[in-house]
What does this fold into?
Amino acid sequence: MIISYCVYLGVSSNFMRTLTTILILLLTANLTLANDIDDLQTKDDVQKFLVKINPEWEKYDFFENTGKEDTSAYGKGNFFKIDLGNNGLTDLVINGKYFFAVTDNGNGNYESHFIDRGTFMLDKHTLKNIVYKDKTPLLIIGSYSEYNFGKNNDTKTDTLVLKFGEFYEYNSTPDNFKIEEISFSTSHCFGTCPVFELIIKADGTAKYNAIEYNDKKGKFKTILDTATFNKLLQTINYLKWTSLKDEYSVNWTDDQTATLEIKFSNGQTKKISDYGMIGTFGLEHLYDQLFALRKTQKWKK
It folds into this structure.
């Protein structure tokens, strides 16, 4: 009917081909809004889906020994389909043997984000609730002990949001600090943890001292690429610096310590020592960004 009407009006065949192409693209775009996660209905479906996106997970039962004692609506043994990134694609939150999310990045690309953290995932959590703030989903989480269920009634909670591609403690009013210098260093551990030092200035210039267990060894310098540097600054301003402690420590041994010192242009300085490097979710991801600089930037002697 559309084609006949267009012909009647004397519309060119080239225009018709263009219009047809646009209609096909629009229909295809609508179809791609659905993903494999939308079809998941049971725990068995979820288990098979996880193995599909990562065959190495076949050896894990993600719902093993869960849900027997935790009968809360969001507790262990449950999964939830939710658009964490507000991109129109359904993501998956699994509160099973491990607590993590799988996000859909489009075109069949999925990414996992573990909320359980630390060596051997010893720092475990459970989902308490899902709430919304300005249409953005937030995960309310608490600590979890798989060996002593009574400890899971701890009233302390954290509120997490998917930000910068990872889960951070939600901050409704990020800071706008001007950074003068970032100093970051790591210690040895019982193993081959990378030992290095980084100093990053306000103009993006950086110095890297690769001490031990890095891809290279020696002292290097570079100018960070703009996108990476901006993300680093945005992350720092999202972390609620006034609420962060000066020291963090995990309750196991033989781990690595990170020392982070940030000098702000207003004269303030914040120095944090973090044994185990999971003081907060935000700090952990900031450390990940700093670790990644060793490989993503073009360092020169």
Observations:
- Residues 13-31 form the longest helix (19 residues).
